[in-house]
Write a structure and sequence with these properties.
Length: 89
């Protein structure tokens, strides 16, 4: 993955759960945007009242999506998936 000014450290990009996440969501957004990704997320309540978050990121024809119970969870997953796209070409 190309380097981007202000991007996240590699350990967080890989989404290692053992690392505490003290990075604000705006940093995730700025990182992905700096790498050329358009990103959007939405949170809603399911019929059983549990919260669900969806995130989609696109760059040209490349698309990654994440679904989870928290906004932080979907952003971390999206960054992990974008890093994998970068490695896989």
């Amino acid at each position: 993955m190309p380097a981007a000014s202000g991007c996240l450290p590699g350990a967080v990009l890989l989404g290692r759960d053992s690392l505490p996440c003290r990075i604000p969501l705006t940093a995730f957004f700025r990182c992905l945007h700096a790498l050329g990704w358009s990103v959007g997320d939405v949170g809603f309540h399911e019929a059983d009242a549990r919260m669900v978050w969806l995130l989609t990121a696109t760059r040209g024809l490349q698309v990654v999506s994440a679904k989870g119970g928290t906004q932080l969870e979907v952003w971390r997953e999206a960054v992990r998936l974008v890093a994998r796209v970068g490695r896989d070409g």
